[in-house]
Amino acid sequence: MLDSVIIAEKQNTQLFPLQQESHVRCDQCAIRNLSLCRAVQSLEIRKYMALGTTFSVSAKHNLFTQGEAASHIYIITQGIARLYKMLPDGRRQIVGFALPGDILGINQGESFSVSADAITNLTACCFSKQRYFEFIMDKPHILQELLTLTKNELSLAQEQIVLLGQRSAEERVAAFILGLRNRMKRSQHLSVTIPLMMSRQDIADYLGLTTETISRTLSKLMKSRLILIVPDGVRILNLQRLYELVAG
Amino acid sequence: MLDSVIIAEKQNTQLFPLQQESHVRCDQCAIRNLSLCRAVQSLEIRKYMALGTTFSVSAKHNLFTQGEAASHIYIITQGIARLYKMLPDGRRQIVGFALPGDILGINQGESFSVSADAITNLTACCFSKQRYFEFIMDKPHILQELLTLTKNELSLAQEQIVLLGQRSAEERVAAFILGLRNRMKRSQHLSVTIPLMMSRQDIADYLGLTTETISRTLSKLMKSRLILIVPDGVRILNLQRLYELVAG
DNA sequence: CGCGACTTTGAGCTATCTCAACAGCAGTGG
DNA sequence: CCACTGCTGTTGAGATAGCTCAAAGTCGCG
Questions:
Q1: How far is B225 from chain A (nearest CA, A)?
Q2: Does residue A172 or residue A17 have the better pLDDT?
Q3: What are the C-alpha distances in Å from A107 to residues A149, A153, B20?
Q4: A35 versus A22: which is more confidently predicted?
Q5: What's the pLDDT band for B103 if we cut at 50, 70, 90?
Q6: Which of A61, B7, B82, B102 lies in disulfide reach of B98, CB 3.0 to 4.6 Å?
Q7: Which of B208, B224, B219 is nearest to B172 (CA)?
Q8: What integer best gives the mean pLDDT of chain A?
Q9: For A220 and C3, how far is CA from C1' in angstroms?
Q10: For A200 and C7, how far is CA from C1' in angstroms?
């Protein structure tokens, strides 16, 4: 089985803050068809695997920080990370949550323009950014795939702009739950229960609200029987009405 | 001189809502080195020019609408456009203003995910999206340039997310003025007077505020001597204090 | 059991919105 | 040349969604 998955399964063992391991094994990777790696062709895969190393961090540790030299990229295989920007006075805006299959750092220039923390224990494939780009530079089929991924990210960012610019607290929270649900069904099998691995503070900083407002709004959605708040997540009771809220 | 520029100079003549003209002339184009076109090499330029037609729309007319099949891309040579998304209930979020050198439609999938209107009279180079992609598909140097442009757009979108999620009205307006200033100096020579070609409503829908709040905030910035409101624009009186506001 | 971190709930506050009036200006037509 | 109309922008006054501050509840963990 894939090395990185084995590491991730030891959820209860204490991981070091940061671990680099052996080469990656794309041929058996669970998220390969979700990520850029799916564009790497059979003939190229041996060389590709030689470039990457498996990598893990335990929950709450930092992967990289805004301003740092962006020397590596990470393809998440297990776990969830938050990507955020800090203002000098301490305000924080989370620009996205990264799930398995997502690539961190590939859209950064010389230095990172965002910071990233592991929310859960996290495993990833780690590549030298320079070597990675040398590898894909002359391979149009991979460049095109990367372009497609970047376009999708841009499209998500624009949806987030609409959300933050126009939507009420209730609409934001509903959109957040549904958005998470949509992204989960990409990898895992779909369930009416959406696990929320991040804290209320994380959700607040993602939606441009406060923890109190998140809490109140979830309570409100529960009182109106759209969701049920369960330990570490929410259960969707009325999917259609949630969608109607978001369509607004 | 470049055809499209000649057309644009007839600012006072009535343009048809939409005009398609002759082939583009990249060799003398004023914005070529600002846009994707700079990556097109000498040997390729003849074929590239044959692909595009010059295009113009007069102020306030629509270029394309959210949901429409995205069959063409437009590289703006003169004028300014707004890109926006509408919610079913009429709320509008402007996701960006496009200036000369910007490319519209290249990051859209099958159908446009945003709408675009000309704010001023506008000229652009118009390409069939399919033919354009056929042309660049096997040219890694152009794909890389396109990827870089898309990354920059993503980065701008993330800045906008921080602005909408965390910043006060005063910070948003200051950031808007400075952001416009930065993008203007890319093409035009720099001036302390920033022309605001768009309406207060456009600014409001871009910053997630109301026209009244824009108006009040500009007045406030004028009272505190950071800017001077002039016809169709603002004059920056205290650049440093504006920057301090945005650093927040 | 008790501590600390996170979440929920309450109560009052404030930035921004809403609604409304008015001002400036361009175009129109008498 | 001057009403008149329509459109955009400004200003005021009151309303409100979400924020702040505070207290109490919950849960995991030593």
A1: 24
A2: A172
A3: 10, 10, 36
A4: A35
A5: very high
A6: B102
A7: B208
A8: 91
A9: 31
A10: 8
- Cβ–Cβ < 8 Å for B149, B75: no
- Cα separation of A102 and B149, whole Å? 20
DSSP annotation of B111 reads B
Distance CA(B130)–CA(B58), nearest Å, equals 26
Which whole-number Å values give the CA distances from A186 to A37, A236, B46, in the listed order? 16, 18, 44
The answer to whether B89 contacts chain A (CB < 8 Å) is yes
Task: Please determine, for residue A5, whether its predicted confidence score (pLDDT) is greater than 80.
Answer: no
How confident is the model over B181-193, as pLDDT tens digits?
999 888 767 788 9
Relative orientation angle of helices A200-207 and A211-223, to the nearest 10 degrees: 100
Strand arrangement of the beta sheet that strand B103-104 belongs to? B19-23, B53-57, B122-128, B72-78, B103-104
Of B87, B91, B164, the CB nearest to A208: B164
DSSP A190: P
The footprint of strand D (CB < 7 Å) covers A 168-170, 208-210, 212-213, 231; B 199-201, 211-212, 214-216, 218-219, 229
Statement: the pTM of the whole predicted model exceeds 0.85: yes
| Distance set, CA B107 to CA A83, A151, B60, B62, B63 (Å) | 23, 6, 23, 18, 15
- Cross-chain CB nearest to B89 (options A153, A164, A248): A248
* Spatial separation of the C-alpha atoms in residues A126 and A166, rounded to whole Å: 38
pLDDT of residue B8: 35
Chain A residues closer than 8 Å to B208 by CB: 164-166
Q: Is pLDDT of A21 > 80?
A: no
Q: How far is CA A217 from CA A17, A177, A181, A225, B18, in A?
A: 35, 12, 18, 12, 47
Residue B94 — very low, low, confident or very high, per pLDDT cuts 50/70/90?
very high
Inter-chain touch B147–A151, beta carbons under 8 Å:
no
Residue B231 DSSP code: T
B 195-224 residues inside an 8 A Cβ radius of A: 205-208
Q: What is the pLDDT of residue B115?
A: 98
User: What residues contact residue A196 under an 8 Å CB cut-off, 6+ apart?
Assistant: A180, A203, A232, A233, A234
Burial of B10 (0-12, 13-18, 19+ CB in 10 A): exposed
